[in-house]
Amino acid sequence: MQPELQTMAEQRTELSSLGEFGLIDKLSEGLELVNESSQLGIGDDAAVISADDDNFGLLSSDMLLEGVHFDLSYVPLQHLGYKSIAVNVSDIAAMNGKPEQITVSLGLSNRFSIEAVEAIYKGMKAAAKDYQVDIVGGDTTTSHSGLVISISVYGKVAKEKVAYRKGAKEKDILCATGDLGAAFLGLQVLEREKQTFLANPNMQPQLDKYKYIVQRQLKPAARMDIIHELNEKDVVPTSMIDISDGLASECMHISRNSGLNVAIYEDKLPIDKQTYDTAVEFNLDPITAVLNGGEDYELLFTIKQEDHAKLDTHPDIHFIGYMHKEQVGNVLITKNGNQVPLKAQGWDHLGQK
Amino acid sequence: MQPELQTMAEQRTELSSLGEFGLIDKLSEGLELVNESSQLGIGDDAAVISADDDNFGLLSSDMLLEGVHFDLSYVPLQHLGYKSIAVNVSDIAAMNGKPEQITVSLGLSNRFSIEAVEAIYKGMKAAAKDYQVDIVGGDTTTSHSGLVISISVYGKVAKEKVAYRKGAKEKDILCATGDLGAAFLGLQVLEREKQTFLANPNMQPQLDKYKYIVQRQLKPAARMDIIHELNEKDVVPTSMIDISDGLASECMHISRNSGLNVAIYEDKLPIDKQTYDTAVEFNLDPITAVLNGGEDYELLFTIKQEDHAKLDTHPDIHFIGYMHKEQVGNVLITKNGNQVPLKAQGWDHLGQK
Asked: Which residues bind ATP (chains A, B) (predicted)?
């Protein structure tokens, strides 16, 4: 036998010592792109591939694992199917692109009946319809452990409109869509109700007053509406990323990739009243939830100052800060005008375990 | 709580009642393609997508799960990485295409050290180099259970050269590459040695005389060499599929998709001496291993009769049968001239559990 896992133990460095982004950096070392058609590899929301004279192709993949990304004791299967498509569409949106094809790979244990799989697929089909994307392939297999959902999405973007993380310029305005922290607090509510239910199965969950934030956790939307509106208003973001790991973490990505610093205003951060109230109820700082709560799948992007007027009246685009190269680094400007360093404590799917 | 899995139990149909292909058929019901760029959805080795004026894009995904597709007690991590890329490349080869980009999603438990993940990646990089394909993205996450590898591949094919499963015509010649049944018998050897080792850990595995077939199981090759040669000789297969589930099963796909029947000659089936001898040693019928053993990742394709001369002297392309529409159906013509119905007992990753 070839006990690879054991021999490896001679030199054993724990995954958690690197974290998710550190591991990706390490694995990406020495990866060269040999095909002319590979315009951009690892390091943005999607890879960029030559398509036709006018467009680039975009390719991205995401994997959702039971017990890590979702808990089937409170996640309805149909919503899970919907969400798995939406989070992939969001990666294409973050490149200012339009998703067109999706492949779906499912690992299923015999715990799942055909009816259960159909429920997942019903959600996927609903999302495919909402985002006008075609499910064109995939793989279905037995899993001996939990449910595995792996999705890849292919999309297109006009060459002159592709938005990378790296394109922000000094004095560009930083914009965030929707509101933030809601999905994170929705998760806290669902986890609390689960514990209550486990302690006393006769207790019915109290979710009515948390309807909005629970919905944001269970069935997030990809902001393709924003992409279409930016296109209509002829605004091309100078940089963009989707907010999956938390606002602070995404700010860091734009900062690092663009070689500039970010300043964001505490009093400009968009937060829904239900998110705010629930944070207070849970003894959490609402601003921390906004900065570090993951899974909102809103968009963070920068625009040139001259484009500000075109978006000024948009109800769902918030001007939260700007790009600079002051030595102070990435900062949060508090309500009373203090600058405090911006720290990312985003979701790390390797480090947290 | 929303006990979806329990409520579903009210009407519970077991996955095994449908099998993998039945489930895929069921889930594909009502899937409409809304984007003009979606040339072909589910049902072939890869989806076909509009690319530029001369080429189609090809998109395919495969998922490998620990305990289902591989056993880490005898699969070296580096070979596993190599194989996971090769099997995806094989799907693009089966469309007569060339792979260009790959995304890799990994689900890792804390059982894995960084060194172990690097071993997987080393194999992936070696395969990427061999097949001239770029690793451009993916996802890395914690898994609470086994190792999960999900890969998607994007490739290109000249529009007039794309090979579907459906294109075979009456009297076309059926061709198979390489030899068959080897990977299946390699697996039998590895499983036997594992049992021996578990019974007596002091026993060293006896693999020398099985080197070829074990290699075929652990590190299969995608036949991109054949694709390049067909291209050089200006032969466009009228239909094609890769042999992942077993020759008989793949014959059925070409038959069903092309609306014709297959006849294959027992004495034309390519089998390596080591495969044959090992089948006999295991009291297995060598022809059954060739017909139903999976994971060889050779190619099965049809050509027009007039192209026969162009491939006649190729040492690794075997003319194993032909397409017909006789009422007798899909048949194996035995050495003594009898026609027996061809039955597929290929690997069904849902039904077999």
From this structure: 121, 138-139, 165, 244
Specify the DSSP class assigned to residue B85: H
B47 interfacial to chain A (CB closer than 8 Å):
yes
| Residues B59 and A101 sit within 8 Å (Cβ to Cβ) | yes
Options 3.30.565.10, 3.40.190.170, 2.60.40.10, 3.90.650.10; CATH for A173-341 is 3.90.650.10
Q: What is the distance in angstroms between the Cα of A312 and the nearest Cα belonging to chain B?
A: 33
**Facing residues of B239 across strands?**
B302
Interface test with B, best of A152, A206, A295 (most B CBs within 10 A): A152
Residue B353 pLDDT greater than 60, yes or no? no
Structure tokens at A154: 């292919």
Instruction: Summarize pLDDT for A220-238 with one digit per residue, the tens.
Output: 999 999 999 999 999 999 9
Phi, psi of B246 (to 5 degrees): 120, 145
Q: What does the DSSP assignment read for B179-241?
A: -SSHHHHHHHHHHHHHHHHHH-TTPPP--GGGHHHHHHHHS----HHHHHHHHHTT---SEEE
Query: Residue A219 and residue A198: Cα distance in Å, rounded?
Result: 24
Cite the DSSP H helix spans in A200-340.
211-218, 224-232, 247-258, 273-281, 286-292, 308-311
* Separation between Cα atoms, residue A16 and residue A13, nearest integer Å: 9
**Are B46 and A74 a contacting pair at CB < 8 A?**
no
For A73, A110, A350, B25, the CA distances from B12, given in Å and listed in that order, are 18, 11, 36, 18
Residue A341 has pLDDT above 60, yes or no: yes
User: Under 8 Å CB-to-CB from A303, ≥6 apart: which residues?
Assistant: A172, A173, A175, A235, A237, A238, A311
